[in-house]
Design a protein that fits this description.
CATH superfamily of the largest domain: Periplasmic binding protein-like II
CATH topology of the largest domain: D-Maltodextrin-Binding Protein, domain 2
Order of helices and strands: EHEEHEHEEEHEHEHEEEHH
Structural class: alpha/beta
CATH class of the largest domain: Alpha Beta
Strand order of the largest sheet: 2-3-1-4-12-5
Helix content: 25-40%
Shape: elongated
Strand content: 25-35%
Distance between the termini: 29 Å
Largest sheet: 6 strands, mixed
Number of strands: 12
Number of helices: 8
Number of domains: 2
Length: 213
């Protein structure tokens, strides 16, 4: 018997890539999820709802039971410190890299304090701690590439898809990527136990679709 499910998604590029996967698994929104002003959207499955939340909030909604499952980027999960979720499936969408970037000639091997602008403070601090590099983290929410140009930061830590935005602002990647990023299916731990059959069926269905891409 299929059990009720709530799925936390976020509008934007990842949603466009996620909806075809859900459709192949038999779940279709009852209205346009990309344009609706509703935050909870019905689907063709009476027992399945889609919740539309901020990308950075998806792990919290899943961990604290607001949603049974969710889809979010690995970059968001690396920054999330909670332990109430499983990460059973890489959906292979939203592929990019988490990198360090700066102006030409900038380095990250100095002995002094390095100013790092990022919206991923935990990931950035962990990365530089492993290198033994002292850093001052400057938390930003957007326009990351501007920080080195105005002298506010030495480097940035941000996601990169093609590198075009970095190049357009005179920045370049420094060293190897910190992490390869893609969108992951995450599951609330309690829901996995209580709704085991329904959730595992969805994981199997999505795995079959992902394997064909």
């Amino acid at each position: 018997m299929r059990q009720p499910l709530s799925i936390a998604l976020t509008k934007g590029r990842i949603l466009k890539s996620t909806l075809p996967l859900l459709e192949a698994a038999g779940i279709v929104p009852a209205e346009d999820a990309e344009t609706t002003r509703k935050l909870r959207v019905d689907t063709n499955q009476p027992d399945t709802k889609i919740l539309l939340v901020r990308a950075s909030d998806v792990p919290a909604y899943v961990e604290y039971g607001g949603a049974d499952i969710g889809v979010t980027g690995k970059d968001v999960l690396l920054e999330h410190t909670g332990r109430g979720i499983y990460e059973p499936l890489d959906l292979g969408i939203g592929v990019c890299q988490l990198v360090v970037a700066g102006r030409q000639g900038a380095g990250i091997d100095g002995s002094g304090m390095l100013k790092v602008a990022t919206k991923y403070p935990q990931v950035a601090r962990d990365f530089f701690d492993r290198r033994g590099q002292q850093v001052e983290i400057i938390k930003l929410y957007g326009s990351m590439e501007l920080a080195p140009l105005v002298g506010m930061a030495d480097v940035i830590v941000d996601i990169m898809e093609t590198g075009a935005t970095l190049a357009a602002n005179g920045l370049q990647v420094i060293g190897e990527p910190i992490h390869q990023i893609s969108s992951r299916l995450i599951v609330n731990k309690a829901s996995m136990k209580i709704k085991h059959q329904t959730i595992h069926q969805l994981i199997d269905d999505l795995s079959g679709v992902v394997g064909k891409n």
